[in-house]
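User: Structure please.
Assistant: Input sequence and predicted structure:
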Amino acid sequence: MIHLRKYHSLASVMQAWENLWGNNPNATVYQSPAYARMIAKHILPYKIILRQNPEFFLFLEDDAPIMILPLFHDWFGHDYTLFGYKTGCGYLDAIYAEDMTLEKMGECFSVFSDAHPNAKISCCHIRQESLLGQYLSQSAKDRQFTPCVVISLPNDFEEYSASLSKNTRQNLRTAYNRLQKDEKTFELQVVDHHAMSRNLRHKLLKIYADRQVKHYRKAGGYLYRLFIRYIDVGTILHKEFPEVKSFVLRIDGQIAGYFDALYKDCEVVIPRLAIDDTFSRYSPGVLLLNESIRYFYDSTAIRTIDLTHGNEQYKVAMGGTIQQCLKGTLLV
């Protein structure tokens, strides 16, 4: 029989969280105990912005934890959103072991419904292939799909290059030829966040904020830039997350583009990628990815690059496969 316990602190469920996450190789880095701790440590601004408090629901079967449903609960109602919403999490999910089943997940939500009638859980950024994604596919109201892109690397760099379209290979040749013709130098720097200088971090943040405001029309201007620099959990990564690096493409010594990379086994997740439009003649986004993929082959065991949300043309051109995330509402 499944029963439910509710807690208001992450620490109260952390042991179960670590055990369940450690027994699910399909769980993303965003559901890792380290990422959850980082969110919890810096939760206060988000509680105010969202007007919600975190609550952690632990489901047990015969006193053994089988799932944790981490949620934000509205201050003035019965509405919930998944824990991590708006805090820089690329993917959201419940926490469960690999042997969790759809049937048991349905029982868990039934138990939750009995304890919290009229509750509504808003879900987004749920990977379609995840177990929660499968459950949402059959149970959520107003389902919507949003794209994300993943590059699965073949055996070696030559095979990867050959797999790209003829047009993409020509665009790469053009970018490198333009650099040579204009007598420009370029280099890829891979910088561990824990060893990154404050000056470099500020430059990268400025490029990212500029890109978000100008290209993606992020509202708020100056306030948004302050949020990015001092509050966003995606910025705090460089201080507190165990394994995160920045890949920085420089042209004539100047930063032309960069991305942050979160490591998990043979996969990297890229939560932020930004380019400086000053260097658009040289296609810095595709150059950055191409040089980084060359680095992965030469120096690491990385074979999966998760570019997360959006299906921008350059992601697909560089060998990415479009996958889907789910958004919807559970009326439990």
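The mean pLDDT is 93.
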